[in-house]
Amino acid sequence: xxxxxxxxxxxxxxxxxxxxxxxxxxxxxxxxxxxxxxxxxxxxxxxxxxxxxxxxxxxxxxxxxxxxxxxxxxxxxxxxxxxxxxxxxxxxxxxxxxxxxxxxxxxxxxxxxxxxxxxxxxxxxxxxxxxxxxxxxxxxxxxxxxxxxxxxxxxxxxxxxxxxxxxxxxx
DNA sequence: CCCTGATTCGC
DNA sequence: GCGAATCAGG
Length: 171
Known about the structure:
This protein is mainly alpha-helical. Helices cover 29% and strands 2% of the residues. It comes from Phenylobacterium koreense.
């Protein structure tokens, strides 16, 4: 199938509406998403009005990089590439967080040897943290050690034991 | 592994 | 001009 004026028109509309290339391809039929993307490019409408994802300015924020006692030379990071307007605002305070009683204050970089390593949040997310409070038992603080080391026991003597026993086989 | 768009390059 | 293959992310 070729690109008739009609199909091109549909393509433009759908693309401007924010549909993904694969969705457009499926709707038009007879073309793959690659074909759609290729056409979109050729038509010169690569940018979008309503992108599903803001699409970061391709700017890698320099990691705070504040371990504990690492030398961490204050190296200057020069950006040879053009920084977009949005990227201009990136102060990166990176204050030395004090480890107190507030959970979730330790990042993977600031997590010290004696801090509770109970994970908080989505590990694949940027705001992933660890509990960070003082370790008490194992790698966890008092509170989380209780949660971590409380398998099956308690509650319903009947059945629970058998369940635990059967479960144990898989460990 | 699913998805996204971007780019390349033989046709 | 076309689009599959490939790349680079999320």
